[in-house]
C-alpha cells in the first residue's frame, strides 16, 4: 500500500509538471489543425525549407500496433502515446524542426519504429530520437537495450545521430532538458 501511494504521489508530480508547462492557451487553440487561424499561422511553425515541409507532410508507414494507446493530442495535430512524447512534439513543432512520429525504419532484417525521425532544419541530415519512458521496469529496460544495440549495429550512434531521453517514475522527463537538446542539435 505504501509503495503504491509513493507511485501515485510521483505520478501526480509528473502530471503537475506537465500541466504547468502545457496549459491549453489561446495560441494553442489557434494552432489546432481545425482552427480557422491554422493556415494563417502555419508559416510560423512549419520548417522554412519547402523540401523538408514536403517530407514531413508526405505519407509514410507508421507503427500500426496499439493505435488505441495514442491518446495524447499535440499542437502538431498528431496523437502520441505518452505525455513525454507530447512534450517533445510540442518543442519540435515550436522550433520548426521537421519530424515524423513512429516512422518505419528497416535495420537489416528487422523493422523498427523510432519515436521520432527528424531532419535537421538546415542540413536535412537524419536523426532518430527514442524516448525511453519506463527504464525502471526490468522488461522494458531489456527491450530498450536490445533496440539500442540494433540501432548501433546499423550506424545510429547515441549523441551523434541518435538522441536518447530517459525517465522513471521518480524522475520524469524535464521540459527544459528537452528544449536544451533541441537547441544543441538543431538550433545553431
Can you characterise this structure?
- The chain is globular and about 55 Å long.
- It has one domain.
- Strand 1 (72-73) and strand 2 form a beta hairpin.
- The longest helix has 20 residues, at 2-21.
- By secondary structure, it is of the alpha+beta class.
- It contains seven helices and eight strands.
- The chain has helices at 2-21, 26-31, 38-41, 50-57, 83-94, 138-153, 175-186, and strands spanning 72-73, 79-80, 99-101, 105-107, 110-112, 116-119, 126-132, 162-166.
- Helix content is 41%, strand content 15%.
- 20% of the residues are buried.
- Strands 3-6-7-8 form a four-stranded mixed sheet, sandwiched between helices.
- Helix 5 crosses helix 7 (175-186).
Task: Spell out the key features of this protein.
globular; two-stranded antiparallel sheet; single chain; ATPase; 7 helices; alpha+beta; 4-stranded mixed β-sheet; 188 residues
Amino acid at each position: 500500500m505504501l509503495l503504491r501511494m509513493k507511485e501515485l504521489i510521483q505520478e501526480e508530480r509528473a502530471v503537475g509538471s506537465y500541466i504547468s508547462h502545457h496549459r491549453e492557451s489561446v495560441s494553442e487553440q489557434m494552432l489546432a489543425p481545425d482552427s480557422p487561424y491554422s493556415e494563417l499561422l502555419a508559416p510560423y511553425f512549419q520548417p522554412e525549407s519547402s523540401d523538408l515541409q514536403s517530407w514531413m507532410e508526405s505519407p509514410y508507414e507508421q507503427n500500426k500496433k496499439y493505435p488505441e494507446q495514442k491518446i495524447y493530442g499535440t499542437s502538431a495535430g498528431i496523437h502520441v502515446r505518452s505525455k513525454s512524447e507530447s512534450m517533445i512534439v510540442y518543442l519540435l513543432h515550436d522550433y520548426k524542426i521537421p519530424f515524423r512520429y513512429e516512422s518505419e525504419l528497416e535495420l537489416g532484417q528487422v523493422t523498427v519504429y523510432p519515436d521520432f525521425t527528424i531532419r535537421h532544419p538546415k542540413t536535412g541530415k537524419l536523426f532518430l530520437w527514442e524516448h525511453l519512458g519506463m527504464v525502471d521496469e526490468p522488461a522494458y529496460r531489456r527491450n530498450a537495450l536490445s533496440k539500442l544495440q540494433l540501432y548501433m549495429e546499423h550506424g545510429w550512434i547515441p549523441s551523434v545521430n541518435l538522441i536518447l531521453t530517459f525517465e522513471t517514475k521518480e524522475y520524469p522527463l524535464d521540459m527544459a532538458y528537452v528544449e536544451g537538446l533541441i537547441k544543441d542539435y538543431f538550433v545553431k
